[in-house]
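User: Please fill in residues for this 676-position structure.
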């Protein structure tokens, strides 16, 4: 980070050294809720209601974004499909916002309550996602779209995107507009708005808040997904000319969770309409603890393109009155107390008087007190000058103000000075009266609030958790797979666990996913020895591992790219050869692409219809067609792949290292491909 200062005096004179205090505000403060729109509007009117955030949830000087989704869950009707309603937000700030909704068409048959809205307000972005706001250019009629580009390499696949429009001009009902996304890819998407009533006047000062994610942050979000609507047949009158699908939650809930949705249409799909012709509305009809019924409707054309609806599910993870931040739940008192009383009250809630591990947490806690002084758990009541946290001993982070602590007149307790004092601390008398914040650890290992693999054990830690694969499985805990991951089905290796473990360990760093599984595509003695058979079964399968047996010798190779029949070389940096059983006195060895000819190191594999698997430019390994009935297969090790240490290329030792001789006749060849 670089901080710049500018001389505004215009004198150009030399200045004394100066210091700049700064603080990094981060994290992902978030709060969600549900509100009924009780006012029943006329057909041309909207219904609006103000949502007040719980106290102490947001940084006061940082922008808040809001996502909303409309539903009819409180009408207790699982059959009726209601008229399409569009919704938007107004006047968003750190204390509250206004949510509005308007029904499409001119039907006056409204319902009570008019609608229910699930809302989600947040600052910043979750680690697994990204957020933003885009201003829509003003327009007079029809549809208006804006392009959004994601940060480079943020997503490997197309993410789910949620969008909500925010009107900076309040009470302008002619600005009511449908909202959806177009052409979501891993790099970008379009946000599209269409006026609800045609030729409704100039639309301006409308912004779109968006949230994109591929993997949503647990424990805040419990699940997410996408619902496909093929729309191959026209909608029915029974469904009010909408398409509806019921989505079953993947986990169980004790109460109906909050759900956010957004529709996505693809202009690039064959035969689909451009967004200028669309007017897409989506909402939730009924919902309960097991799932929700989502509906989509096209309001402006009689074409019904296929589309999808992305969704994210949220639930309360902290006790009522507590809020989540970075692995902990927090509660802030409304009244002041002395330090010992604050400690006692926090312990009564199975929590601790706030201790601080880093500057981000320091800023967050002090913002919860709106700039006022507040107690921390730090004190030196036991040993003068030895400051410890009341329930967790010594810590590594402090933020003392200048010349503090000074123990003036037996000051043994510590309070935070607040936002206007650079978030610093001071020691004071424990009898003073200040507000306080309690903190308790969230056990992510309970109720599926973690990303541990189903074959891993979750262990809760203070502010976090760890995952460890269970016995018999390997991986990082977030992805676990059987220690042999399918290679145990190898006819060549099945009887030797040591060789299976060795090969699995060599493959572990190059697999596409820690949950990958190796599936056999070719076993020559069963499927046939013809090279064309190998290619018909194994071409275009992605990464593969080839295992060869010649008498007692066992060897092979891995490639990270697909086999082809085009008689061309291919390069992949992850490719390697291996030998499990070889010359007397040698053990298993892995051979990387560091052979004798540097210019041939790009020749990782050679794929051609008239031969089986071939590795290297020499070739280092070459399996002939019908290899079991001839000796055209050979090993010219050291050409592309490194020869064993201490031996040179073309030596008789190297040429016979893998198979016992230069030319060989294999007893078995197997090829496994990686399935993710």
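Assistant: Residues filled in for all 676 positions:
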């Amino acid at each position: 980070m670089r901080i710049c200062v500018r001389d505004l005096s215009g004198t150009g004179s030399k200045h004394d050294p100066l210091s700049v205090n700064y603080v990094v505000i981060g994290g992902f403060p978030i709060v969600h809720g549900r509100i009924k729109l009780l006012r029943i509007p006329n057909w041309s009117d909207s219904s609006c209601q103000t949502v007040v955030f719980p106290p102490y949830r947001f940084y006061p000087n940082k922008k808040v974004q809001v996502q909303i989704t409309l539903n009819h869950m409180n009408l207790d009707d699982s059959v009726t499909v209601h008229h399409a309603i569009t919704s938007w937000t107004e006047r968003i700030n750190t204390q509250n916002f206004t949510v509005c909704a308007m029904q499409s068409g001119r039907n006056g048959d409204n319902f009570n309550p008019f609608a229910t809205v699930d809302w989600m307000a947040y600052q910043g972005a979750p680690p697994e996602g990204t957020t933003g706001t885009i201003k829509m250019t003003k327009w007079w009629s029809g549809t208006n779209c804006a392009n959004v580009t994601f940060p480079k390499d943020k997503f490997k696949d197309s993410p789910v995107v949620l969008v909500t429009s925010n009107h900076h001009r309040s009470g302008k009902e002619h600005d009511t507009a449908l909202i959806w996304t177009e052409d979501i890819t891993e790099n970008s998407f379009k946000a599209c708005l269409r006026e609800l009533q045609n030729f409704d006047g100039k639309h301006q000062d409308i912004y779109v808040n968006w949230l994109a994610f591929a993997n949503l942050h647990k424990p805040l979000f419990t699940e997410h997904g996408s619902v496909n609507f093929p729309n191959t047949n026209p909608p029915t009158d029974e469904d009010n000319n909408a398409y509806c699908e019921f989505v079953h939650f993947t986990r169980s809930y004790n109460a109906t969770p909050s759900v956010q949705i957004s529709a996505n249409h693809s202009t690039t799909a064959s035969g689909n309409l451009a967004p200028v012709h669309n007017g897409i509305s989506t909402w939730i009809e009924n919902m309960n603890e097991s799932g929700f019924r989502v509906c989509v409707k096209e309001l402006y054309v009689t074409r019904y393109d296929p589309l999808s609806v992305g969704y994210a599910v949220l639930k309360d993870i902290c006790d009522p009155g507590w809020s989540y931040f970075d692995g902990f739940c927090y509660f802030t008192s409304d009244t002041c107390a002395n330090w010992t009383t604050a400690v006692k009250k926090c312990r009564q809630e199975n929590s601790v008087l706030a201790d601080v591990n880093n500057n981000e947490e320091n800023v967050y806690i002090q913002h919860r007190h709106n700039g006022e002084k507040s107690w921390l758990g730090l004190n030196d009541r036991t040993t003068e000058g030895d400051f410890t946290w009341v329930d967790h001993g010594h810590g590594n982070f402090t933020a003392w103000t200048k010349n503090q602590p000074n123990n003036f007149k037996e000051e043994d307790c510590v309070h935070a000075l607040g936002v206007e004092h650079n978030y610093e601390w001071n020691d004071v008398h424990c009898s003073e009266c200040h507000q306080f914040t309690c903190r308790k650890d969230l056990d992510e290992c309970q109720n599926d609030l973690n990303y541990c693999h189903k074959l891993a054990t979750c262990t809760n830690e203070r502010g976090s958790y760890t995952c460890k694969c269970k016995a018999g499985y390997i991986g990082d805990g977030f992805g676990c797979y059987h220690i042999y991951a399918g290679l145990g089905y190898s006819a060549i290796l099945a009887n030797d666990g040591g060789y299976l473990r060795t090969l699995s360990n060599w493959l572990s760093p190059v697999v596409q996913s820690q949950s990958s599984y190796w599936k056999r595509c070719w076993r020559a003695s069963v499927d046939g020895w013809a090279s064309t058979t190998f290619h018909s079964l194994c071409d275009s399968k992605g990464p593969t591992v080839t295992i060869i047996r010649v008498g007692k010798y066992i060897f092979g190779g891995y490639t990270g790219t697909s086999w082809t029949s085009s008689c061309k070389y291919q390069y992949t940096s992850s490719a390697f050869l291996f030998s499990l059983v070889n010359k007397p006195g040698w053990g298993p060895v892995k051979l990387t692409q560091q052979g004798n000819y540097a210019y041939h190191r790009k020749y990782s594999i050679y794929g051609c219809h008239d031969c089986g698997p071939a590795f290297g430019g020499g070739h280092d390994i070459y399996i002939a067609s019908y290899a079991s009935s001839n000796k055209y297969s050979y090993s010219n090790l050291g050409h592309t792949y490194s020869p064993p240490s201490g031996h040179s290329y073309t030596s008789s030792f190297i040429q016979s290292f893998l198979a016992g001789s230069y030319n060989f006749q294999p007893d078995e060849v197997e090829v496994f491909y990686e399935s993710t």
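For context: The mean pLDDT is 88.
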